[in-house]
Write a structure and sequence with these properties.
The chain is an alpha/beta fold. The protein is built from 13 helices and 13 strands.
Length: 381
């Protein structure tokens, strides 16, 4: 055991001004959706180049609402990746449509766009790409493909706030773009998310779906045109988001510095010779939401869980992002099976998310690399 303070795989950075701002909201008496949500939405819209943006209580409902805005429902198919948080495909089921998984690219670990065309059928209505760990899917190829088949794109950009493609911030262009502000994301509202849309008509629909389908007129007029949910963000959460937004570039720069240090120390430690697969070293586009390695299962005498337990005993937290979705019982009942997507299955079995967050110290990276490499060497077959 070690006396070193425990290093979690992530931790949000919330400054004292934000904490005081939350206290002011609580004292104001207006703590549900109100002026702070509108202020947050305006700030987000400015960040996304003036595009209509609405805030919600999760980055899951944002994708569901995007599907509903796109008119996707029973009988429709939506192409997506099997390597993501299960919410990505669950929302497709939620609207009554059918998720169609396509294998991942082994280098990016994102949806393999080369394989997507073969999965398109007359029932295909949309593609949901996922920017795993903040690394964007190739937007140029994605939108060329979508346009050629007249498909909508719902970008699962939950992890890519602050990422970019060809010099343009994710969210400032494209179709429907969904972000998450969960505590492990690059900025947080504690829980929450936002949806970036194309026009005022879509924004009005999003508002209806956000709160029971209600449409208001005047001081007392109310109508319900469609079934909605209870997905509104609170002013308390919005105030946290307002405190985070000014720091996103600073957070990103620190994540980049830590990621570079990971690469340098893994290289010095001979990680690739040990069979550890490092992420794509992209410092032009990704926000470095996570730093993930893939363990060499064929060279280890222990399981990933045992490696994680031994790291924890050395005060190092780690995570799993993510198991392959199609292997969950729900999806196996829908017809998917082991062997359908061998690359996603192997990565899902062996990926390990290492600590990466702005408050980390440089020597925290050194400590993580030193201990992980030591464990991999100790358990080589």
């Amino acid at each position: 055991m070690t006396e070193r303070p425990f290093l979690p795989f992530t931790r949000p950075t919330i400054d004292e001004a934000t904490i005081e701002g939350v206290a002011e909201v609580l004292r104001s008496g207006w703590i549900t959706s109100g002026p702070k949500v509108k202020e947050f939405e305006a700030a987000l819209s400015e960040h996304f180049g003036g595009r209509p943006t609405r805030a919600f209580n999760s980055g899951t409902c944002t994708m569901e609402i995007a599907l509903r805005i796109a008119g996707i429902g029973p009988g429709d198919e939506v192409i997506t990746t099997p390597l993501s948080w299960v919410a990505t495909s669950n929302v497709v089921l939620e609207v009554g449509a059918t998720p169609v998984f396509v294998e991942i690219d082994p280098a990016t670990r994102n949806l393999d766009l080369e394989r997507v065309a073969a999965a398109i059928t007359p029932a295909t209505r949309a593609i949901i790409p996922v920017d795993l760990a903040g690394l964007p899917v190739d937007r140029d190829r994605l939108y060329r493909l979508a346009a050629s088949h007249k498909l909508r794109v719902i970008e699962d950009a939950a992890q890519s706030f602050g990422s970019s493609w060809a010099g343009r911030q994710i969210g400032t262009f494209g179709d429907l773009v969904s972000f998450s502000f969960h505590p492990n994301k690059n900025i947080t509202t504690i829980e929450g998310g936002c949806l970036v849309m194309n026009n005022a008509t879509e924004a009005a629909l999003a508002e209806q779906y956000r709160l029971q389908g209600v449409v208001r007129s005047g001081p007392d007029g109310m109508d319900v045109e469609r079934v909605g949910g209870k997905f509104n963000l609170t002013d308390v959460a919005a105030r946290v988001g307002l405190g985070q937004l000014p720091h996103w570039a600073e957070f990103k720069a620190r994540r980049h510095a830590l990621a570079k240090r990971y690469f340098e120390h893994f290289e010095k430690a001979g990680a690739t010779e040990l069979g550890l697969e490092l992420p794509l070293a992209d410092f032009a586009n990704t926000n470095w939401h996570m730093f993930q390695v893939v363990l060499p299962e064929d060279r280890l005498s222990v399981t990933r869980a045992q490696i994680m337990d031994q790291l924890s005993a050395r005060a190092i937290g780690s995570g799993v992002h993510y198991p392959a979705i199609h292997l969950f019982s729900l999806y196996q009942r829908l017809g998917w099976k082991a062997g359908d997507f061998p690359v996603a299955e192997r990565v899902g079995r062996n990926t390990l998310t290492l600590p990466l967050f702005p408050m980390m110290q440089d020597d925290d990276v050194d400590y993580v690399v030193e201990n992980l490499v030591e464990l991999v060497k100790a358990h080589r077959r």
